[in-house]
Structures are given as structure tokens and as C-alpha cells.
UniProtKB/TrEMBL annotation:
It holds the Pfam family Beta-barrel_RND_2. Residues 1-27 form the signal peptide. This is Efflux RND transporter periplasmic adaptor subunit. Residues 98-155 form the Multidrug resistance protein MdtA-like alpha-helical hairpin domain. Coiled coil: none annotated.
């Protein structure tokens, strides 16, 4: 079949008529949408130290679990929780029957090996036995002596004595109980080490802490009284389960402090060299994977620009950012759901014709 160009020309006529019908009959341009009224917040440049608040428990800095080096049945447990003990004081003991029998057997074997070695040495001097037999008897003596020392160690460690003066923090077993080797029976706190408040701090805050920083500590058991402490130790790695870092705050000497008390600490973070911005929560939307968006208001053009920002953390009245904005820029905090990139806006004023009060933000 053969086609000419005329049918195509005729087909274009309805399309042209349709386009003409769709346009404005008088040729006037389509009116732009009216500006949307918004209130704004200024990303300020005020610098103020960041405060880190964390909760934790009071503990003696050095708390040592005490246990036996061999398995057995406990026959003596004289220490109770809260007791003050002195260095060398007997705290617990196992039934010595098994360890005593082991020591007696080792000593008997050592005596037999010693007699065999003496007899072999005498026969060697007379030429009746070869040197390897003497060497074998000498090795047997050394093995028997090692077994005796091991048995003596086990017998001596069937008793727990206080390695130093302190306070019994926990009693984890009872007389008559059979325990395995190494099982903690008592926990002894070294009173001379002083009390600390152990805090679990998120990684973003832990990196801004330094040893020696002051801390304001509140212990619930002490009422409204505030104690002044200092950061004593910061863990070198995060807890595998929680992802937080253990921070120890040294507390002043106070006889009212007890292990296990609940307290909170407020620490002024080290923000030197860091740049931190914050905006009101109303300005941020579509947050995901540490990023979100805001509408930046261009006062010269009276339009908004969509801007991606990176998030750090959220507080009660602001969201801290690590990038995406500059101090002094204005962000929209109302009408977010009606805005789009390039949208014309009008900054609304309050009833007294004063500009809407900006929400101050920080930058360091």
C-alpha cells in the first residue's frame, strides 16, 4: 500500500485544534500560585558548651571477685554482705578431705621416687646399672616433687583469705554448696580505692569526654545534694551488646555512699574544634539513616530551597546537625507539608508587626 504526505497533514489538524482549545482564549499567561506564609528559625552562631547527662550506679573503683582454685563443698563462709574485713582474715573454706588426700598421695609418691633414685645411684656407682636408669629415677623424683607442690597449692587455696582491707559487696554462695573451680563466692570492695559513678555513654558523646573533666553528680539516696566529681576513666572500646562506652566518674569521700546506689552526672563536653548546628525539630522532615531535609528561606528572593542535612542527635527542643547549613541561614518551621523546592513564600509577622522570633541555634 502506498501513502502520500497529505493524510499526515490532515491528521495534524485535529491536534492543532485540540491544543488551541486547551489554551486560554485571550492568550493571557497562567497565574503563578500565591506565596505561602511561613515562620522561620535562624541558624545562629552562639557558642555554648554541650552538656552530657547520663545515669549510672555507684561502686567502689576496685571490686574483686574471690573464689576457690579447685572444686569442692563449702564448709565455712563467715563473711556477710556489708561486713568490713581486714587483710588476711579467713572468709571461706572448702571441705579439705579431697585436697588433703591428694597431698598425702603426692607426698607418698615423692618418698618412693626418692628411694628409687637413691638405690639406682648406688647401683650405678658399683657398675651394676646403666646411666639411663639413674636419669629415669631422677626425673621421677622431680615429677613427684612438682605434684606435691601442686597439691599443697590446692590445699592452701581451699581457704579464702582477704587480700586486703575492704567491704564485702556481695555474697554469692552458702555453706554446703558445691562450687566449681574459679566460681566467685564473695566480692570484696577495696575501701581505699574510693567510690565511682559508672555511666553508660553513647559513642557520639564519649568521644567528647576527657579524663579530668568536672562532673556534677546527683545521688538519689542523698536527696537534692550535689556532689562534684571528675571523669576518672573512659573505656577503650564500646560494649558489644549496647554500643555504649563505660565512663567512671570519681566521687568525693562520703560515708553515705554505698555500692549499687543510683545517680546521674552532668558533664561539660569537650567541643573544641567541632562545628555543631541545631535547628528546631519542626524544621526537619524525611529523616532517614542519619540524614534529613530542611527548607532554607532566601529572604532576597522570597523563595525556599530544599537542602539535605546530616543529623547528630535530638534533644527536647532541638536537633543537632553536623552539616548542610551555615550559621545565619533561615529555615522554615511552618507549612512544611505545603512547600516544594523553589516555592515562593512570605515570612509572617506576629500580631505586633514584629518579625517572627527566630529559634536560636548553636554553631561551634
Amino acid at each position: 500500500m502506498r501513502f502520500s504526505g497529505k493524510p499526515l497533514a490532515w491528521a495534524a489538524v485535529p491536534l492543532a485544534l485540540c491544543l488551541a482549545a486547551c489554551g486560554d482564549s485571550d492568550g493571557a499567561p497562567v497565574a503563578a500560585p500565591p506565596p505561602i506564609d511561613v515562620r522561620v528559625a535562624e541558624v545562629g552562631a552562639q557558642s555554648q558548651p554541650e552538656r552530657i547527662d547520663a545515669a549510672g550506679t555507684v561502686a567502689l573503683r576496685r571490686e574483686s571477685p574471690l573464689g576457690f582454685t579447685s572444686a569442692g563443698r563449702i564448709t565455712l563462709l563467715s563473711a556477710n554482705e556489708g561486713d568490713t574485713v581486714r587483710s588476711g582474715q579467713l572468709l571461706a573454706a572448702l571441705d579439705p578431705t579431697t585436697t588433703a588426700a591428694t597431698l598425702a598421695s603426692a607426698e607418698a609418691e615423692r618418698a618412693r621416687a626418692a628411694r628409687e633414685y637413691a638405690r639406682s645411684s648406688e647401683l650405678f656407682e658399683k657398675g651394676w646399672v646403666a646411666r639411663p636408669r639413674v636419669d629415669s629415677a631422677e626425673a621421677a623424683v622431680r615429677v613427684a616433687e612438682a605434684n606435691v607442690r601442686s597439691a599443697q597449692f590446692q590445699l592452701s587455696n581451699s581457704r579464702i583469705v582477704a587480700p586486703g582491707s575492704g567491704i564485702i559487696i556481695a555474697r554469692l554462695a552458702e555453706p554446703g554448696q558445691v562450687v566449681a573451680a574459679g566460681t566467685p563466692v564473695l566480692i570484696l570492695g577495696d575501701a581505699s580505692s574510693g567510690h565511682v559513678l559508672r555511666l553508660a555513654v553513647p559513642d557520639r558523646q564519649a568521644v567528647r569526654l576527657r579524663v579530668g573533666q568536672p562532673a556534677e553528680v546527683s545521688i538519689g539516696a542523698l536527696g537534692d545534694e550535689r556532689l562534684t566529681g571528675r571523669v576518672l576513666e573512659i573505656a577503650g572500646r564500646a560494649d558489644a551488646a549496647t554500643g555504649t562506652f563505660l565512663v567512671e566518674v570519681a566521687l568525693p569521700a562520703d560515708e553515705r555512699l554505698r555500692s549499687g546506689q543510683i545517680g546521674t552526672a552532668r558533664i561539660i563536653a569537650d567541643t573544641a574544634g567541632e562545628r555543631n548546628l541545631s535547628v528546631p525539630p519542626q524544621a526537619v522532615f524525611a529523616a532517614r539513616a542519619g540524614e534529613a531535609f530542611v527548607y532554607v528561606v532566601d529572604s532576597a528572593r522570597n523563595r525556599v530551597t530544599l537542602r539535605r542535612v546530616t543529623l547528630a542527635e535530638t534533644t527536647d527542643n532541638s536537633i543537632r546537625l553536623t552539616g548542610g547549613l551555615e550559621p545565619g541561614e533561615m529555615v522554615a518551621v511552618t507549612g512544611i507539608d505545603r512547600l516544594s523546592d523553589g516555592q515562593a513564600v512570605r515570612v509572617v509577622r506576629t500580631g505586633n508587626s514584629a518579625p517572627a522570633a527566630p529559634v536560636a541555634a548553636t554553631a561551634r
